[in-house]
Write a structure and sequence with these properties.
723 residues, alpha+beta, Immunoglobulin-like, 4 domains, 6-stranded mixed β-sheet, 21 helices
Length: 723
């Protein structure tokens, strides 16, 4: 073939076009490579990996610039997060020598958890890019970037490094090949904005271990899948991996983080965590949310994820145990009299009577639940037995109990309307017309419940705390379960009426039993008078006591009056009752303390507790009230006796008493912070347990002493020197 045919014009034109395209593409590729080279510094090999700077753009295209510090680590080696954990230190960058760039801030993607030398650490392995947003003052001039990188890498040994990186970016340009890489890691940086459907409801310190427990409540719009929590706080503390409890619908989680003092913290007394700010990072799969919150004081929500049936069972047991609590004394007369008076009676009457008593108890609990719902809706403090904080209620109970006692002593008859009750208690030697009417039995159940409310029992606080932190329906269900529990002995008798009918028939012995029961009720009235003395004054208690004595005298003496004068007696009783009601209004309202205290109690001051603990002291808080029978039993049997009394008076413990006899919003808020709505309540604070350790409702000496040791970290009684 001739050369002329080879150089055919058409073929020659095609060949030239191909050569031109190849040259153009080669030039573009070279330009792209040059631009990419400008968008990254050289790799620097540091022995356990390599590191470089990269940019999301090939130049300074605007006043915002996104850089990235890219690590490529050897297998097994780790670098550290902004908060490294129990050991290590994070990457820092010195930008001295850089030009036309400012406000560089390292962003930290979600870290992993690693063990180094048995220590919990947070950081990154294999590969990571730390995004670094920055500002450019004059985009057209480009930027010179000089970064001095200081970091620590660890495996079986730890090696610190100090490396210089340089990169120059011209003015203008576009996206670089590293943009998607930086964006991928930037998406892993926890957000502080409302996003991903994650939020943190609260952060609080609760009891749970020797060194305390942090509880964080997290919420999500979609079910949680792989939940974790990172806690950042004072360097004197270390925070273990959380125990995660997720609700049945997957939208609410309680994360409980054990807290311990760090071996690597600063020397000196550690700061208290209560009221301190903690940065919390909630991570769930590819979602991460970060928030800084102040910690409050709270109670463990471990029961929040118990099946609702379990809470109902606890409420039932709490109501059942109320029957054998110290508060059984005021209602013992009603209970025993109701059983023994059925001796030799009709089984049907027994069943109706005890079912009516059970109905009265259930009605009273539901009424109390309604009362608390109304108070809570109005924004008032709610709690178990708070009605005894009101002097007029106490006076009412004194009057009612006085009349019941006089009734037991046979001083007058109660003749209620036929549709309510036919009960008449004799004053003239005849037999009662209907001593076990449904109405009177129902009223006995109501009265027994009201008088039982000053007591707190095991399981009762848990059930009521759960109920009052929930909705209205849950409150009614829990209070109904409490009522069924307290009425359970009566339900047993109604199911097995022979338990009562096999007893001896009422006779003369019954009058003696009733008189003894009347004395027990009179003692209850005396106890309520002591409550009134603290709430208002001793003068008011003396006046009401005198009026009640006059009422009993009038009732006793009316049988000796002529028929005409007998009608004056009811008016006299009404007048005496009216004066009793007026007494708290006019008496000196400065409550006075009654008997001698064995312990030198200090007034309750919640704000002073963290300061005292910071000084290395142990604080015992006793929330009590004169109307709380269980509180008084705890004092007599535990706090005012033996080792506990010696320790509380030794000077090694600050004993604080919060008197809730009268309404006090500060005390109510303190109880609510622990999810407690009734008393007694006791907590011990110390250097090892600055958030406080709660004690059970019924105190035992060994439990109190063990808790003192846990909170203080030492045997305080031995430290007192000879006690």
């Amino acid at each position: 073939m001739s050369a002329i045919s080879i150089l055919n014009p058409r073929r020659l034109a095609g060949l030239l076009a191909v050569l031109f395209a190849a040259a153009f593409l080669s030039t573009a590729a070279s330009a792209q490579q040059a631009a990419s080279a400008q968008a990254a510094s050289n790799w620097v090999d540091y022995g356990q990996g390599r590191v470089r700077l990269v940019s999301a753009t090939t130049g300074t295209t605007g006043d915002a610039l996104l850089l990235g510090l890219q690590y490529d680590m050897a297998p097994g080696w780790e670098i550290y997060w902004r908060t490294p954990g129990e050991a290590g230190f994070p990457t820092t960058i010195d930008w001295t020598g850089s030009r036309n760039i400012s406000d560089q801030v390292i962003q930290w993607p979600v870290p992993g958890r690693f063990k180094i030398f048995g220590l919990d650490t947070f950081g990154y392995k294999n590969k990571v890019v730390l995004p670094i947003p920055a500002r450019v003052a004059r985009p057209a001039e480009g930027a010179q970037i000089r970064a001095q990188i200081n970091f620590l890498t660890c495996q079986e040994t730890c090696v610190p490094h100090d490396i210089s990186l340089e990169m120059n970016l011209p003015g203008g340009g576009g996206h670089s090949e590293y943009a998607s890489l930086i964006d991928r890691y930037e998406a892993l940086v926890p957000t502080r904005e409302a996003g991903f459907g994650l939020s943190i409801e609260r952060s609080e310190l609760v009891d749970g271990s020797d060194s305390g427990l942090l509880q964080v409540v997290a919420l999500s719009r979609i079910p949680f899948t792989n939940l974790d929590l990172f806690v950042e706080g004072p360097e004197e503390y270390q925070f273990a991996p959380p125990d995660v409890r997720i609700s049945a619908d997957g939208l609410r989680a309680v994360l409980q983080v054990p807290i311990a003092l760090s071996s690597f913290g600063a020397i000196g007394t550690p700061p208290t965590l209560l009221g301190n700010e903690l940065t919390l990072t909630v991570v769930d799969g590819g979602r991460a949310f970060e928030q800084t919150l102040r910690t409050s004081l709270g109670q463990s929500e471990a029961t929040s994820f118990l099946p609702f049936f379990t809470i109902i069972l606890l409420a039932f047991l709490g109501g059942l145990i109320l029957n054998v609590m110290p508060c059984v004394l005021p209602v013992l007369s009603i209970k025993l009299l109701g059983v023994v008076s059925h001796g030799g009676g009709d089984a049907g009457a027994v069943r109706r009577s005890f079912l009516a008593t059970s109905a009265g108890i259930l009605f009273a609990f539901l009424a109390l639940g309604t009362f608390l719902v109304i108070l809570r809706s109005a924004g008032a403090s709610v709690g178990w037995g708070i009605q005894f904080q009101q002097p007029l209620f106490v006076v009412t109970m004194i009057l009612v109990i006085t009349l019941f006692a006089a009734n037991m002593w046979g001083m007058f008859e109660i003749a209620l309307p036929q549709w309510v009750s036919n009960l008449t208690v004799r004053g003239d030697g005849g037999a009662p017309r209907n001593p076990h009417s449904v109405g009177s039995s129902f009223g006995s159940g109501v009265f027994a419940t009201i008088l039982a409310t000053p007591c707190s029992a095991p399981f009762l606080g848990t059930a009521i705390g759960f109920a009052l932190s929930r909705g209205t329906v849950d409150i009614y269900v829990i209070f109904a379960a409490l009522g069924v529990g307290m009425s359970f002995p009566f339900l047993i008798v109604s199911a097995l009426p022979k338990l009562a009918t096999k007893l001896p028939k009422p006779g003369r012995w019954m009058d003696t039993v009733k008189k003894v029961m009347g004395v027990l009720l009179a003692l209850t009235a005396v106890w309520l008078l002591s409550v009134l003395a603290v709430q208002v004054s001793f003068l008011s208690a003396y006046v009401v006591a005198g009026l009640m004595t006059a009422t009993v005298v009038v009732l006793w003496g009316r049988r000796y009056l002529s028929q005409a004068l007998r009608h004056v007696a009811p008016a006299s009783i009404v007048a005496l009752a009216g004066l009793a009601y007026l007494t708290p209004q006019f008496a000196d309202a400065r409550g006075e303390s009654g008997g001698m205290e064995v312990i030198a109690w200090q007034p309750f001051d919640e704000a002073a507790i963290p300061l005292l603990v910071a000084e290395g002291k142990t604080v015992f808080v006793n929330v009590t009230a004169e109307w709380c029978i269980t509180c008084q039993v705890n004092k007599r049997l535990v706090l005012n006796r033996g080792e506990v009394a010696l320790l509380l008076n030794s000077g090694n413990v600050v004993a604080m008493e919060a008197d809730w006899t009268k309404p006090d919003e500060t005390i109510a808020a303190y109880l609510a912070s622990f999810r407690r709505f009734g008393i007694p309540f006791n907590a011990i604070y110390g250097p090892v347990a600055p958030n406080g350790l709660m004690l059970p409702e019924l105190l035992k000496t060994n439990v109190v002493m063990e808790t003192f040791t846990r909170a203080s970290g030492q045997d305080l009684l031995a430290a007192a020197g000879g006690y």
